[in-house]
Structures are given as structure tokens and as C-alpha cells.
Amino acid sequence: MTTKAARSFTNPYGRFDYIHADRQSFHVGVTQESYEGVYFLIATSERALCDLIAYIGRFNLRYNVEVQRFLEEDMRLDMDFFKTVRLSIVEEYATLGKRVTPYRP
Questions:
Q1: Residue 30, helix vs strand vs coil
Q2: pLDDT tens digits, 32-52
Q3: How far apart are CA 62 and CA 44, in angstroms?
Q4: Which of 29, 93, 104, 105 is least surrounded by CB atoms within 10 angstroms?
């Protein structure tokens, strides 16, 4: 994710795709980390999942059964993750992020 123009590039480490995110939602669920004196921004697990659902675009997750199937079968997530998920990040992203289609439990 980037607030700049979207772009892709390949280097010896792999292919990297940067998708444009508006400034209003960019900060949600992003933390600053450092490694060997180099500082960088990294998404929390909650933010990464929100971005995946919002920006891949081929998901139609409106009901509990669809969401559960997607998370367990398609993404193969360990459902224990949701025992520790920070809902405040997901809720803030939902109000500021790209997708506006309502989820119906």
C-alpha cells in the first residue's frame, strides 16, 4: 500500500506491487518498526486482512457463511487468530477504507 501512485517492480527478492490507498485510511493498522537501524512501516495482521478483502475485489462477503468459508477454506487462516484480533482496527478501516458494501452477520 502507498499513498503515492500505484506501481510494480521486480528485483532479486521478488515482485512487489504497491496499490494506492488514500491518505485518510493509510495510517489505520500501520506501525513503525526498525531493523538494524532502518525504520519502515508495516501493516498489522488485521490491516493486511482488510486490505486483501478490500483490494482484491473478487470477494462478495456479505453473510457469515461466506466470510467463514473465505477465511477458513480460501485463505486457510487459523481461526484462533480471531480470538486476539483487534476489532478497533477492523472497525476503523471499515469506516475509512475503500469498500463500502455492507457486511450482514
A1: strand
A2: 999 999 999 999 999 998 888
A3: 23
A4: 105
